[in-house]
């Protein structure tokens, strides 16, 4: 993987500007005298009340985080007794025009050296050299590879249909999926399988890391993935990981046969499947040490389109499973139905009015010379991100983010801007009852 620890001149310039802004906030907090303004103070209280449900969710997740480590240790002892690694695994790789990275993806799966391994590549009507590269690779590796390799070449029908075709060929206990632009860590499969320590655990999400980190847009995604996936540890404590992305997902084959094929009507078929599994009463978990590297979009247009698909697909999924909201069924986790899902929708409402919220917050800060709330927020975010890096299984890979953490509060405003455009475009499509197709972008490769 390309070494990107040395920042470019553009990144250094941007970083310098962000540090100047951050240092200025601390300077103003230390030198200015706070002025009273009753109207703005009331507005700030109102904003705090608006944000309280979302803040409460984060507080609960932060409290739950230590329990993830405790359960991991208990699982490790249990797995030694039960030999959970004896489960056989089928890895499905759907590919559409993935000539840039498909061979590296295949090789990374083979390099896991998992004993009972089946690999199924599904060429979903690629128009580039994907077929030629895969065919030649299979021919060359047939005698050397211990894994069973199967190859399907289909007419283009979409990722969900490709996955469903591959499921009919899969024969092993655990079904894993990985995108054609990803690289598996050597222990990704074995560390994933460990989490299937009881029959009720039906799906496990792996830890996805953005592997390209030379451009500003890529570093922002690296930071975003680090923070987002870290909180899945808390969701895992409550057996309620409802977003299990297809880049690193694992399922019990018998559960997939029970709940049915991947949905072809929803653009985020992976989220729909994990939510359907939770609705059926099964448990889902997160494997922090089961790492898969993915290629994040390297330009803003592609990133905006990717987030539109994610946002639109989540709305489709939440509409489909609206019966889960505030469900009183004993088979459904209350953490999922009373906290995670309702706050997910409420957070979209907050995002919709975020410009107003930020305007009130910064107006109060500047007019009243009260910079301490902002200083507290910056300090808290810096501390949390630093701890996330320290506790991540690939902390050396993320060490470039240590210098980014003090200015992350500004970078997340950029993320929110991307998310806002995705929300606006999603709501517009839902209002007009328009569908959305998969967006494609040019791969650079990891």
UniProtKB/TrEMBL annotation:
InterPro entries per UniProt: Glyco_trans_2-like, Nucleotide-diphossugar_trans
Parts of the chain that traverse the membrane: 12-30, 42-68, 335-365, 371-391, 403-424
GO MF annotations in UniProt: glycosyltransferase activity
Domain Glycosyltransferase 2-like: 90-258
SUPFAM superfamilies named among the record's database cross-references: Nucleotide-diphospho-sugar transferases
Gene3D superfamilies, A to Z: Spore Coat Polysaccharide Biosynthesis Protein SpsA, Chain A (3.90.550.10)
The keyword Membrane belongs to this UniProt entry's keyword annotation: yes
Keyword vocabulary terms for this entry: Glycosyltransferase, Membrane, Transferase, Transmembrane, Transmembrane helix
E.C. no: 2.4.-.-
Family to which the UniProt record says this protein belongs: Belongs to the glycosyltransferase 2 family.
Protein's name in the database: Glycosyltransferase
Highest classification ranks of the organism: Bacteria, Pseudomonadati, Pseudomonadota, Gammaproteobacteria, Alteromonadales
């Amino acid at each position: 993987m390309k070494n990107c620890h040395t920042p470019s001149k553009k990144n250094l310039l941007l970083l310098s500007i962000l540090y100047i802004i951050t240092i200025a906030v601390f300077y103003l907090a230390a030198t200015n005298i706070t002025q009273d303004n009753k109207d703005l103070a009331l507005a700030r209280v109102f904003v705090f009340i608006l944000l309280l449900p979302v803040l409460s969710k984060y507080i609960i997740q932060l409290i739950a985080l230590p329990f993830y480590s405790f359960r991991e240790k208990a699982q490790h002892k249990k797995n030694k007794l039960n030999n959970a690694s004896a489960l056989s695994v089928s890895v499905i790789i759907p590919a559409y025009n993935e000539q840039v990275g498909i061979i590296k993806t295949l090789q990374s799966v083979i390099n896991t050296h998992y004993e009972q391994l089946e690999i199924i590549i599904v060429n979903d009507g690629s128009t580039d050299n994907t077929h030629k590269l895969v065919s030649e690779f299979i021919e060359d590796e047939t005698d050397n590879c211990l894994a069973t390799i199967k190859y399907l070449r289909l007419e283009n029908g979409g990722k969900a249909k490709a996955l469903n075709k591959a499921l009919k060929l899969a024969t092993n206990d655990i079904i894993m999926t990985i995108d054609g632009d990803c690289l598996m860590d050597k222990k990704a499969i074995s560390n994933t399988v460990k989490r299937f320590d009881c029959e009720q655990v039906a799906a496990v999400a792996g830890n996805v890391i953005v592997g390209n980190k030379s451009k500003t847009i890529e570093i922002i995604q690296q930071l975003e993935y680090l923070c987002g996936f870290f909180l899945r540890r808390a969701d895992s404590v409550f057996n309620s990981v409802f977003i299990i992305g297809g880049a690193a997902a694992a399922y019990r084959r018998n559960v997939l046969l029970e709940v049915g094929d991947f949905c072809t009507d929803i653009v985020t078929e992976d989220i729909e499947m994990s939510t359907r599994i939770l609705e059926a009463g099964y448990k889902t978990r997160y494997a922090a040490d089961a790492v898969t590297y993915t290629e994040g979009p390297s330009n803003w247009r592609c990133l905006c389109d990717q987030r539109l698909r994610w946002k639109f697909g989540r709305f489709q999924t939440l509409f489909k499973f609206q019966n889960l909201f505030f469900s009183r069924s004993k088979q459904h986790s209350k953490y999922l139905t009373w906290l995670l899902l309702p706050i997910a929708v409420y957070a979209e409402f907050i995002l919709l009015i975020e410009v107003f919220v930020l305007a009130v917050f910064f107006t109060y800060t500047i007019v009243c010379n009260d910079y301490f709330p902002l200083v507290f927020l910056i300090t808290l975010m810096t501390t949390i991100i630093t701890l996330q890096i320290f506790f991540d299984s690939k902390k050396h890979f993320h060490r470039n983010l240590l210098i980014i953490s003090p200015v992350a509060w500004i970078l997340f405003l950029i993320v929110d801007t991307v998310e806002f455009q995705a929300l606006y475009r999603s709501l517009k499509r839902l209002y007009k009852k328009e569908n959305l197709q998969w967006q494609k972008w040019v791969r650079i490769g990891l």
